[in-house]
């Protein structure tokens, strides 16, 4: 039976809205000048869901420009965890099935990964933009040799305008990823907070470069 990609994408977006509204149970694990990272056990799989919250010194439009999940977008240039990003199938103007590959990480303990997700982009009335995703299967994306297939459970980023501060954007992100393969839990638990801190730091540099 064909996968209901649009329905899965919509459900991932609803999960993001629930996470955003649910402040309970998060435990802080990493704090930098750019982001506070917290976690709690995932309800989706036997791992954790991580939440990053920070303010990026740029307009929501510029932040969105840097993070939006589109083929040929800037993200492969600035995000050290994205090596390649391709759109496998466009479902509608706001929903697409995408394949992302990641380079080896954590001193090569984590080998290259590939992820196949359905991605939804959504704009709210207050100007907030959301990109939400969750893992799917797609006939054009059988597992590739040289990559471990990982799975993103509902995850996403909200770019939230700050009233009266047009050049600052609250970025709230949720990551819950099963990296697949046989990684020690300690590696996984140290990788994600460091990776999210790197994401905010590299994004901050990328938006500054846009303004030049």
Automatic annotation (TrEMBL):
One of the protein's GO biological processes: cholesterol import
Q: Please indicate if the UniProt record lists Ribonucleoprotein as a keyword.
A: no
Alphabetical list of Gene3D superfamilies matching this protein: 3.30.530.20
Pfam families, sorted: START
Where the record annotates domain START, the positions are: 1-212
Keyword list, A-Z: Lipid transport, Lipid-binding, Transport
Q: Which InterPro entries match?
A: StARD5/6, START-like_dom_sf, START_lipid-bd_dom
Name any one GO molecular function: cholesterol binding
Function text: May be involved in the intracellular transport of sterols or other lipids. May bind cholesterol or other sterols.
**PANTHER family per UniProt:** PROTEIN CBG07384, STAR-RELATED LIPID TRANSFER PROTEIN 5
Output this protein's name: STAR5 protein
| Source organism of the structure | Calonectris borealis
Tell me the lineage of the source organism: Eukaryota, Metazoa, Chordata, Craniata, Vertebrata
């Amino acid at each position: 039976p064909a996968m209901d990609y649009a329905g899965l994408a919509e459900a991932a977006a609803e999960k993001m809205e629930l996470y955003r509204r649910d402040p309970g149970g998060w435990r802080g694990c990493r704090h930098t000048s750019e982001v506070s990272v917290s976690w709690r056990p995932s309800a989706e799989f036997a791992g954790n869901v991580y939440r990053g919250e920070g303010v990026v010194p740029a307009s929501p439009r510029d932040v969105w420009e840097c993070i939006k999940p589109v083929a040929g977008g800037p993200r492969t240039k600035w995000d050290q965890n994205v090596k390649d990003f391709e759109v496998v199938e466009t479902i509608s103007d706001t929903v697409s099935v995408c394949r992302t590959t990641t380079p080896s990480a954590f001193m090569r303990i984590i080998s290259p990964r590939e992820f196949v997700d359905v991605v939804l982009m959504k704009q709210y009335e207050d100007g907030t933009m959301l990109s939400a995703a969750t893992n799917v299967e797609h006939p054009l994306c059988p597992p590739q040799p040289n990559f471990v297939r990982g799975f993103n459970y509902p995850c996403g980023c909200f770019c939230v305008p700050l009233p009266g501060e047009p050049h600052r954007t609250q970025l709230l992100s949720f990551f819950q990823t099963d990296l697949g393969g046989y990684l020690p839990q300690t590696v996984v638990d140290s990788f994600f907070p460091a990776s999210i801190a790197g994401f905010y730091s590299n994004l901050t540099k990328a938006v500054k470069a846009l303004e030049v």
